[in-house]
Amino acid sequence: MAVPPADGSTGRTGTVLTKLAVVGDLLMLQLVFLVISLGILTLFPAAFALQRVLPDAISQEKPKLMRRFFREFRWAMKQFWLSGFALYVGGLMLAFGISFWAYAAGPARVFALLVLVPLTGLVLGLYLSGLAVLPAAAADATMKTLFRSANHFLLRKPIPVAGGVVVLLTWFALASQVPTLLVIGSGLVPAVTAYMLSRTRREKTSDDVSI
After folding, report:
1. Domain range for residue 28?
2. Are 168 and 124 contacting, i.e. CB atoms less than 8 angstroms apart?
3. d(C-alpha 168, C-alpha 164), whole Å
4. Alpha helix ranges (H) inside the chain
5. Residue 174 CB-half CA count within 13 A
6. DSSP labels, 125-181
7. Which residues of the chain have pLDDT under 70?
8. What span, in angstroms and rounded, lies between the C-alpha atoms of 77 and 40?
């Protein structure tokens, strides 16, 4: 009978294979998201569906990931397609406004940027907060209830969310110079950032304290 290596190489191999499986699932989700999000109305429902299945892709606890993704996509389309379109239009307006005033002249430029830049940061913070609470949202959740939960999350974790906004803006800046990054991470970067924000440290109990 073969004896497993005593140096733990089998365990390390299993860990590597698990991480490779996670990377493969994430890239597959990104590819499906990229294809589906080409339609304007499907962009945010696809992002919401990706966020709902991301924890399972990372934990590798549930099979049939693609089937779950398309089920969540149908749910998100039914619940949020109109709100997603409004987010799309609002995002374009903010981006256009910042681009316009960044190259304008006069004192109005400074005033406009002092309004638009913090507003953009707030919108991104609420969006990341909404993604963070989305996996736990009920099947009958609406944009109103999701916004309320996102606002509560933002008020509880303003500094981590602000850090997530900085990460997102940095990635957008890099993607504007290297468009290939959009193909690799247009859905994954916001999703993983929100996932990291949603993770909470387990509080220590008496069982964790050794005497």
Report:
1. 17-198
2. yes
3. 6
4. 9-36, 43-59, 65-102, 107-133, 143-156, 158-177, 180-185, 188-198
5. 14
6. HHHHHHHHHGGG--TT--HHHHHHHHHHHHHH-HHHHHHHHHHHHHHHHHHHH-THH
7. 1-11, 200-211
8. 12
Report d(CA 36, CA 13) in Å as an integer. Answer: 35
| The two three-digit tokens of residue 100, written as one number | 């316009």
Going by C-alpha positions, the residue among 86, 51, 39, 77 that lies closest to residue 189 is 51
Which two tokens mark 14? 């299993």
Instruction: Answer yes or no: is 62 within a domain.
Output: yes
pTM: 0.86
Domain assignment present for residue 8? The answer is no
pLDDT digits (tens, 9 = 90+) for 133-143: 999 999 999 99
Identify whether the C-beta of residue 151 lies closer than 8 Å to the C-beta of residue 126: yes
Per the structure block, which two tokens stand in for 43? 């962009």
CA distance 49 to 32: 11
Could you tell me if residue 4 is inside a domain? no
Q: In terms of residues, how long is the chain? A: 211
- Which tokens belong to 172? 């957008």
Which pLDDT score is estimated for 10?
A: 62
Q: Are 34 and 186 in contact (CB under 8 A)?
A: yes
Residues 150 and 168: their CA atoms lie apart, in Å, by 17
Q: What's the distance, CA 58 to chain centroid?
A: 13
CA distances in angstroms from 77 to 82, 188, 197, listed in the order given: 8, 19, 25
Amino acid making up residue 118: P
Is 97 among the domain residues?
yes
